[in-house]
Amino acid sequence: MQEIMKQAKLKAEELLTKGVVNRVIGWTEGDFSYDCSPATFTLDNLDKFVYTEFCGANLSKYLIEESKKEGKILVFLKPCDTYSFNQLIQEHRIKRENIYVVGIECRGKVDIDKLRAFGIDGVLGCKTEGDKLICDTIYGEKTVDKVDVMLEKCLSCKGKKHVVYDELIGEEVVEEPKDRFGMVAQLEAMTEDERYKFWQNELSKCIRCNACRNVCPACSCVHCVFDNPDSNIASKANTDRFEEKLYHIIRAWHVAGRCTDCGECSRVCPQGIPLHLINRKFIKDMNEFYGEYQAGEDTETKAPLNSYTFGDREPHEFDTKEGK
Amino acid sequence: MKKIGVFVCWCGSNIAATVDVKAVVEACKKEPNVVFAEDYQYICSEIGQNKMADAIRDYKLDGVVICSCSPRMHEATFRKTAEKAGLNPYMIEVANIREQCSWIHKDIEEGTEKAIVLARTAIAKVLLNAPLQAGESKVTKRALVIGGGIAGIQSALDIADAGFEVDIVEKKPSIGGKMSQLDKTFPTLDCSACILTPKMVDVSAHEKINIFAYSEVEAVSGFVGNFTAKIRQKARYVDTAKCTGCRACMEKCPSKKSLNEFNAGLDTRPAIYIPFAQAVPNKATIDPNACIKLKTGKCGICSKVCTAGAIDYEQKDQIIEREYGAIVVATGYNIINLDKFNELGYSDCKDVITSLEFERLTNAAGPTKGHLICPSDGREPKKIVFVQCVGSRGLRPCDKQYCSKICCMYTAKHAMLLREKHPETEVYVFYIDVRTPGKNYDEFYRRAVEQYGVHYIKGQVGKVIEKDGHLEVQASDLLADEQLHIDADLVVLAAAIEADDTARKIGTMLTASMDTNDFFTEAHAKLKPVESPTAGIFLSGMCQGPKDIPDTVAQAGAAAVKVIGLLSKDTLKCNACVASPNENMCNGCSLCATVCPYGAITYVDKEFRIPGGVQVRRVSQVNEAICQGCGACTVACMSGAMDLKGFTNKEIMAEVESICK
Amino acid sequence: MQNLKLREKIEEMSGVSVLKCMRCGKCSATCPNYDEMEFHPHQFVYFVEKGEIDKLANSKSIYTCLSCMACVERCPRQVEPAKIIEAVKLLQIRKQGNNHLKPEQVSVSLDPELPAQALTSAFRKYSK
Amino acid sequence: MNFTYYPGCTLKAKGKDLDIYARKCAEVLGVTMDEIKDWQCCGGCYTTSQDEIATKLASVRALVEAKNNNTELLTLCSACHNVIKRVNNDMATNDYFNFRVNNYLKLDQPYNGEATVIHYLEMLRDKVGFDKIKEKVVNPLTGKKIGAYYGCLLLRPSSVMAFDNPENPTILEDFIKAIGATPVIYQMRNECCGAYCTLEDKAIPKKRSDKIIENALSKGAECLITACPLCLYNLKVNGGDKIPVYYFTELLAEALGVK
Amino acid sequence: MQVENKTFKPTIVAFCCNWCSYAGADLAGSARLSYPAEVKIIRIPCSCRLNPMFILKAFQRGADGVILCGCHPGDCHYTTGNYYARRRMTTLFSMLNYLGIEKERTRVEWVSAAEGAKFSAVMNDFVATITALGENKKLEDLRCKK
């Protein structure tokens, strides 16, 4: 990872110096090494650029606002981030010609909360060696199985292929996509009431901080319906039993067929609500009902909800295996 | 504060018997904003309408709710009255308390209660209604007809006769289409050329008709009343203004080996050619794939023999841009490729021919001057086998699922004509079903059997084997439960028809919907059979599905009437309830456009003032002349920027809330 | 006579639906062994549709199909008669003691030049 | 170019020539044919009934071998090609069949039709290329008028075999051109020779073969070529005096100078 | 509690497309084919106009069942509207059920302008189903229920 970071930084420096781009979107560290967040760089502050095990954030959304400004931008995208990028291109939210995409190698990012749950505190830095994660902490070096501390979204990685890039840094590790729908299937197998309890329990934790919406690359409306008093569903806080459900259903509905399953919503949720399970239900259903579709795989294919066939299954057949 | 008036209709006893109308009036009076409420026996009557108009004026009403029968019944009446009284017609809401209430509920208490809810819901909606103005768009008074076969010709003539300009675009060097290749026509057996040629001459002589032959439509933009088409006029290498059609060039051209398309490839033509004697325009065309001069630079004989000096080897394709108010699609058909049906021997055996080739072989203007011979060796056939449904009605990838419709009749025609001209020939027709719906059609087919002694055999041909110059036809005779082996001289295949290969391209260009067989879809199978769902596009002939000449001509005329109806208007009144985007909320994501069935949504980059400067954003625009108001886009839109006038999100939400109160 | 259960079974085994047949007779037109058959390909389809399967099963015709697949290939409706004939035949020879070809019959008719393929496929076709 | 090769029973006995010449030619053309060690007889005939798995297991075993070798499965005898290719199609498309076979075989990894079955002729056309063969010909059979006899098994059902246009095939004709000879087109080239009926009723293949040979002769064929041992047998036995019949590999070997 | 259940009258919102189903409802009316008064119809131009937000709003405000009626697939006045509606509702209903909402509370029926009898039958059946299911406790908005 050190090596990749060095290469990335050199690449950024090169492109900035040559004037190919005039700014860079990447990650920077906060007060702690595990506190990585997106940031914009020029030659002046490029030394603050990092690419570590904690750079889980998907940078594509930041391009929407950035690409409206003058000049070309360099952005670093991990494999799963490239899907969001393509989706934004398809929706004309960003201009391809204004952006220089450097695909960057990723072998799964680390969830600091999971590390802490393992009793690993005071982390100064981490590195991956094979299946292990070696953590340098103020209490000395600690080693864990990486799979135990990876971000939820990395546990169901779509594969390590960049679907769009101008240049690649690091290797494109060939990897079978992991099963994404196991948990959804488990929920489907429950009774209605069990499911209701499960979601009531999860969603009642929602504090309507809107972090899921704000981080989501698909939730990028110029003006969100929840902020629009004319929409009749605008609301700021959960004031009743249904409010949080309404919010999350509508949010999922609005990104249905557009969600690339980047997992950012669950990553940023301060309450740890497994929001990706809602999005994935839509993805799983649409795959089963209308054929495999991966949002952001290309910039042409129509999303399932924006197309149709004469023989589509009927609405009441949603829970049958074959439809008609 | 908006002032709302409510009228509750008795509809005689139709409503009043199960709904306490007085109670409804009282309940409405209690609703906020309602300044006036009254009941009357028949609001749709003249007196009722006058009462309504008076109330609108006297109380300066901003909106009116009428609790009465279904809006499908009298909404238009109420709107007219409102407009006369100075209220925007879209400020009217009808609460359906008859069909949805009094007629289906027997209990007066229950009926009244529901009627009050329905009235309240209508009040909630009308409070949010905005006055709407139906837009208008200009109509360009010229029609484009794509395809110059009998369908296109008929449509063009009818439109032009009504006094409107028409352009015909035909991809071949001459108009005339498939019909010009036919010999006789069923069920009257009159000569195809004799009835078509005068029409072709009419077209060329008509001052309102402009023929773009050897041309193709390259792009179409715009919408009903305002289309712009780009037409590519392919280089003929002949100046049509100068060419006199004398055909001296054709005689002297040394490159005579090109297959003659007009004779279905049964003979050859020179590289410079006029496809047939009655061609319109009667002008020569050089085939660049065969012309020695164009390929090698040497030759130039035609240029030397042309006394008119019409040959121009340097000619280039030209793009012409024209504006139209309406477009008629008449792209026609072709017969399928028979490569996948070679058990019938078409690819290897010269004496296995298609019905179209048979037409040319029996046509006096054809390659044999109408003398029917076997193409292999020129002998006169004595035994002829016709095979029906080749490629039609099947499910395999090589088959067409539909019935090609015309084959039964033309085969009966062929068989009959054969027996008439050559009584000594034996004629067999292998059929699955003989389908002859149509005036005088079955009588025609029966004549073939009964008067002309054509052998109709229920069964199919399974294999054709050529040996010693003859064809062994192996076939089933299902009624006799026999396998036949007929020693035939000629086998004629009724190949399935398919949409012309340019149809898909043109359909895409016009955003006119097509079925999986590339036939154009009509707006309604029964009630709008000549209109495409895309406004301003009309369908004529085979491009919409298999049909014979009488049906084609009828449809061509019908399409023309629709075009005339459209072109006779100076402006088009648009639907007022159309989609309308709020550009401040629009993401420019194109999701709305992907679901729009009419292609009514486009995008522009627009500047917006933001704090500290200007920002350019891509935003959607709805062409109100095209939008039909289905609302598909409003749901595809995530931000809620796209809304539907007359059925806005807020209005429907208000109705929902009112019902669920 | 009618046996719709058996018809269902045959449709299941053959994987084709007899109701798709439009009675064009292409199968019987194309069949190279038509003359050796008592019941012809189109009749197999029709009698199965009617559920009159016994008479087919008891006919020698089930052993005369050459499995050349010409009718399968040329059937415009994808009814594929050869598959139906095979299904009827299997119903017959799967019954105990109903093998059409027995090993002892073979040695007599064996030509020394005959390829092994003829033997194996004949056994596949005629015996269980 | 490496292939996993499935010869089949007939090619080890009465149809030896087909195999021997094929191997010789492969060597010249730079093709390696790795014969499966313990192949089992394909059964000679595909049972169309969807409820049979026992008769199709041998084919699956061969297919699994090819999958494990990570090469295509090369066949030569048309009967084997037909059976194995159709079974492979069942494995790939018929879920219930697939389930039952995998359940029975208990392989390390379930087999789902991953292997590709390729006939020797397809290999010549698509992998080697007829142009390349033309270059390698040392002894062109110039002037020889050859009728290609396809029979049934290579072509039908075309939805599965996808070998060539079933009603108007050209692969053997192109092959004939590649070895310098002249193809003769005749309509009976894709009609049945009578097949295994020869065991029960010799009259059937006699009638069929006569018709085929008569048609070929009337079109001027001097000899016939085929890829099927049983076709070769039926045609030879019934018309050997009227027209010689060869395996296509024999003429290929002759043209390549390795006969 | 028991007594309340017996007199439970559900609130049903029926969205009907203007061209087929609304006309079908009219036909049911003119044929006097009764169905419960709990059904209240909202007219929309096409089934594809139905925004899932309307359904959720209805539930939030105390509806016990929501039904959408549109033209039969292939017969849409706007050619494609009901195809979109069908996909949208299929996925939405599946989602609601996934969150634990009874699948019976939502329904789509294709009712043509000629199917007055079907309209009435559908509404009778839907109301019976919802009545049997009882009050929509899972989704209502407590603030708004009277």
Give an overview in words.
The complex is a heteropentamer of chains A (324), B (661), C (128), D (259) and E (146). Chain B has 19 helices and 34 strands. Chain B is α/β, with parallel strands linked by helices and 661 residues long. In chain B, strand 24 (461-467) and strand 25 form a beta hairpin. Chain D has 2 domains: 2-120, Glutathione S-transferase Yfyf (Class Pi), Chain A, domain 2; 136-256, Rossmann fold. Chain D has helices at residues 16-29, 57-69, 78-93, 95-105, 120-128, 130-136, 158-161, 171-178, 203-218, 229-239, 248-256; strands at 2-6, 32-35, 72-75, 117-119, 145-148, 182-184, 223-226, 245-247. Chain E is an alpha/beta fold. Chain E has one domain: Rossmann fold (3-Layer(aba) Sandwich). Chain E contains 5 helices and 4 strands, in the order H-E-H-E-H-E-H-E-H. Chain E has a 4-stranded parallel beta sheet, sandwiched between helices. In chain E, strand 3, helix 4 (81-98) and strand 4 form a beta-alpha-beta unit. The interface between B and E is large, with 47 and 44 residues.
Q: What's the structural blueprint in terms of helices and strands?
A:
The complex is a heteropentamer of chains A (324), B (661), C (128), D (259) and E (146).
Chain A: H1 2-18, E1 23-29, E2 36-41, E3 49-50, H2 62-66, E4 73-77, H3 79-90, E5 99-104, H4 112-117, E6 123-129, E7 132-137, E8 140-145, H5 146-149, H6 152-155, E9 167-169, H7 182-189, H8 192-203, H9 211-215, H10 243-255, H11 264-268, H12 276-290
Parallel strand pairs in A: 1-4, 4-5, 5-9
Antiparallel strand pairs in A: 1-2, 1-3, 6-7, 7-8
Chain C: H1 4-14, H2 26-30, H3 41-50, H4 54-57, H5 61-64, H6 70-74, H7 81-93, H8 103-109, H9 116-126
Chain D: E1 2-6, H1 16-29, E2 32-35, H2 57-69, E3 72-75, H3 78-93, H4 95-105, E4 117-119, H5 120-128, H6 130-136, E5 145-148, H7 158-161, H8 171-178, E6 182-184, H9 203-218, E7 223-226, H10 229-239, E8 245-247, H11 248-256
Parallel strand pairs in D: 1-2, 1-3, 3-4, 5-6, 5-7, 7-8
Summarize this entry quickly:
In chain A, 33% of the residues lie in helices and 15% in strands. Chain A is an alpha/beta fold and 324 residues long.
Can you tag this structure with a few keywords?
heteropentamer; B: 661 residues; alpha/beta; FAD/NAD(P)-binding domain; 5 domains; five-stranded parallel beta sheet; 29% helix; C: 128 residues; mainly alpha; Fumarate Reductase Iron-sulfur Protein, Chain B, domain 2; 2 domains; 9 helices; globular
